[in-house]
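Handout, section 3.2

Students often ask what a structure token actually looks like in practice. Rather than define it abstractly, here is a full record for Lipoprotein LipO. The first block is the sequence as you would receive it.
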Amino acid sequence: MATILIIGNLTGCGKTNGTAVVESSGSVEETASVEVPNAVNKTGYPIMNVDYTFKIVHSVASTDKIGSWENKDFVQQIAEDTGLKIEWVGIPEASYNDQVAIMIAAGDLPDVFIGQVPNFAQFLDSFYKLDDMIADYTPSLADFYEEYPAIKVAAVFPDGSTYGLPDVQMNGYRAGKCLSINQTWLDAVGMEMPNTADELFDVLMAFKEQDPNGNGQADEIPFSFYKDRKFDLLMSAFGIAGYDAKDYSFPYVQIKNGKVEFYPETENYYNYLQYLNKLYANGLVDPNGFIQEEVDMIAKGTNNQLGVFPNYSYDDITVGDYAKDYTYLLPLKDEEGIRRFVPSSYAGGVIANQFTITKNCKYPEAMLRLYDYMNGSFENRLTFDWGPEGVAWKDNGDGTISKLADPVPDGYNSYAEVRHTLSMGVKGATLWSEADNARFAITSDREKKYVARQEPFLACAVEEFMPDGQNYPEAVQEINVILTELRAYMDNFLAESVMNGIDDKKWEQHLDAVKKFNSERYTQLMQEYYDRMKELMK
């Protein structure tokens, strides 16, 4: 009879590991009397009843002053509260994608990846389907999906299954990537905020020629960028609403009246390239931009050398103590007076497959419980997403909390360093809801600045843009093959056009080239994806 009961308990488990999973809040000793010990407790702690060490690979933020999470306080808390034994393997974010790709190609898989797996859809056979286990082992996520059904839609693959768990940062903001401009320099040269491409050119010329940083040297860089963040935010001035950034999921396309357009073939893009060449020819853009990393641009920013630069959220990451000198540059008006901005799909950031469990994991239920533990209470979410009380934040005693960001604690250059040194931050897998975010009082100048730009940016937001979601693995593979060559071509073509100019002959050669690199098929695949996602979201 005992054997029959054990077999019955195994039926319907997400993964059969040779042991049943039962309700338990007791210790290992209390469950050891069961004839067949249970490897994973469905509730209560410790999570595991067997001796097993999990290996978790995670991305390390560039603003993390320590690196791997192995010896950090929040990791010690996980061990103490859950009893889990975990080997934490940190990979710097700059090389994370490459190293993870090598691991997958070699079949050298950890139990879990915390961080996006490159080309994830192509490797689904290496990961568990999690649908049947979510309700039982991650009730926090099940509840979250009830509150935010659109995020669940974004996580479901075309086969109807979920293979990864999300990181969600619902902060009420949909205006992320933008250009920052040095207001102090504007004042120094006696000019107004530019609204058009021509006005921006005049401002950048003044930055170059009038020594706005006042050091008596011609060391100003009017417009700086780096190899993964270039000029795409200037495209609004030429009637284009899209990104060409290297890490963007849907490069080179925009949506017009429900149709996907490959904008590098448009006359507007030709005009955009001519403008960029004009900036370059007049010495207004960073000559090292095409080859430098973000850290190189930051070094110039903290030396008070930057006039305009692209960033995602807080400019103090790039310009340090000079952040008070900067404000945000709205998308420029095109010849019809229209500004175009591509907003985030959600009021915050969503990474659908941030926490993935590989088939090498013997006990996937335990890793689901780890995810649920990190998200099971506001206090835990606060610890793993922001850091400890008294260093990263303080309790105001009125139901709100404040980030200790103005000024930042001693030993840190920015709040991003505080957050990513003391917590998982945006490299973790947290379900941060709008209700959670509402408990943060807006007190620091950096946050007030970020909040202030939401409304004017969203006033420029286009209504049609590519939604976040999952595509068919075969479509993803085909798209990636196309983009490998297309991106390499477009990077070279952009650099060549900016530095050496573009004319009608070069443009015609370009139009032939993109067709050879399957731009038409790429556009077709993007159209199919867009149509399917719009249907799912009805």
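Discussion prompt for tutorial groups: The chain has three domains: 1-51, 52-173+347-439, 178-342+464-536. How would you have guessed this from the sequence alone?
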